Amino acid sequence: MSNSISIDHVVKRFGNMTIIPDLSLEIENGEFFTLLGPSGCGKTTLLRMIAGFNTIESGNIRFDDSIINSIPAHKRNIGMVFQNYAIFPHMTVRQNVEYGLKMRKMKPAEIKERVDQILDIVKIQDYQDRFPEKLSGGQQQRVALARAIVIHPNVLLMDEPLSNLDAKLRVEMRSAIREIQKQVGITTVYVTHDQEEALAISDRIAVMRDGVIQQTGAPEHIYTRPANLFVSTFIGHSNLIYASLSDTDDLPCVRFAGGYSIPVANLCKDVEKSGRVIVSIRPEEFSLHDEGIRGTVTSRVFLGKYIIYQVRVCENLYGNTNVVEYSQDSGQVTHLLAIGDTVFLKPNITKINIFSEKDQLSMIKDVNANG
Q1: What is the CATH number of the domain that holds 337?
Q2: Are 264 and 280 in contact (CB under 8 A)?
Q3: 282 and 197, same structural domain?
Q4: Which long-range contacts (CB under 8 A, 24 or more apart) does 13-19 make?
């Protein structure tokens, strides 16, 4: 049986340094929840607080309705998967997976039943008599996952579990982890700095920076409607263009340095509809048109499915040249742009994001930082 996790105003300090100043978070029962952020943002520290490896200076952590602050790590009934697998090299796959059950002094028949079941779920039954040195990195990670799940923990915690694998294997394993997690239905907290991994695998994501959660929400919402400029630039790639906002009789209007302007119908009611703003436009949110932001192609890179262009656009409000990225679906391209070509990039006004230059918060309505 898995638990929901409630984190209520927790604080973590190491000496005079505050790592997590005041953090609250709700993780639902059975949810695959990812803590995402750059190195040093506090995501692993928070995971270790949930696990019981780090103390809590203030606040409470609950599994369902029970406060677990003072419960030792070994009594919290958690499963843990580490970056370095942490499987025993002198034991076979089956012996590794059995280990936690034997420590709980379960009956041999029940141990066999559980181990057989989990080996089948994680698809390593054919390797059960091998030692870790005879396994690939992906197979070793499956062993670590099986060992963590077989004890039927209330919560599964995973700390950068795929960082030691090559790119292709990471993609395969993240799909396997997602499938296994849904099959067993266990509440999972997953730590990573890999944005693509987080988007692919999560029910919800919390983006962290300096111990503070910047935004929580479903992957598609965080990607399309980031709450602030940090989230916009950390998740995926965003072109940032300084512009000015002016209020007209009809709709507020964003005006770029080269004179091109677009109406904006989805601004929050309470934001100031004039002054300098930062417009965030993802490469796929541009299209070629007869009018738009004027620029010159400076480079072209073929990446299989996509063609990526670097385009030098008109000087921004500060008099600086700005280079933006524009992507085309290679399967739909009939004419390749050449270096030196003049283009007009038209933003998709329904998808771009606009941030206040002053506080760097989103000015778009229906953006929720705590989804």
Answers
A1: 2.40.50.140
A2: no
A3: no
A4: 13/57, 18/211, 19/45, 19/211
Number of domains forming the structure of the chain: 2
344 close to 289: Cβ distance less than 8 angstroms: yes
Residue at 306 is within a domain: yes
Measured distance CA(57)–CA(13) in Å, rounded? 7
Q: In the listed set 192, 224, 256, which residue is the last one of a domain according to the structure?
A: 224
| Residues 156, 181 contacting (CB under 8 angstroms) | yes
In a domain, 242, yes or no: yes
- pLDDT tens digit string along 102-156? 999 999 999 999 999 999 999 999 999 999 999 998 999 999 999 999 999 999 9
120 contacts: CB under 8 Å, gap ≥ 6? none
Task: Specify the 3-state DSSP secondary structure of 276.
Answer: strand
Segment 65-97, tens digit of pLDDT: 999 999 999 999 999 998 887 899 999 999 999
Q: Which two tokens stand for residue 210?
A: 């300096």
Q: Are residues 209 and 285 in the same domain?
A: no
Q: What pLDDT, in 10s, does the model give residues 161-209? A: 998 888 888 998 999 999 999 999 999 999 999 999 999 999 999 999 9
Residue by residue, DSSP assigns 66-124 as EE-TTS-GGGS-EEEE-TT----TTS-HHHHHHHHHHHTT--HHHHHHHHHHHHHHTT-
164 and 59, same domain (yes or no): yes
- Residues 4-51 pLDDT 10s: 999 999 999 999 999 999 999 999 999 999 999 999 999 999 999 999
Summarised one tens digit per residue, pLDDT across range 327-349 is 998 888 888 999 999 999 999 99
| CATH, residue 20 | 3.40.50.300
* Full domain range(s) for residue 166: 5-224
56 in a domain, yes or no? yes
Q: Could you tell me the two tokens for 8?
A: 């209520």
**Is residue 179 domain-shared with residue 269, that is, in the same domain?**
no
Is 365 part of a structural domain of the chain? no
Alpha carbon 217 to chain centroid distance? 10
